[in-house]
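pipeline: protein-struct stage 2 | run 1193 | NADH-ubiquinone oxidoreductase 9.5 kDa subunit
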Amino acid sequence: MATAFRQTYRYLQRQAHEQPVIFYSVVLGLIGPVMLVTVPPIRKSMGYRPGEPIPTSYPVPNRPRRPVQGYEDE
């Protein structure tokens, strides 16, 4: 069992040395899903609350509309 871990470690060490771009791309690709599961509970435990949602419409006043008068409105 120990030899399997040792061989895996040696293989990863060799790949990091010979093909660092591929090795670190795989490492970062594996970290993403782990962060997806671990970061939200940590933020919640630290007291993070999401902000108020941004309004998607403008509130229309409750009054009759006045006709526009001015530049080229005749």
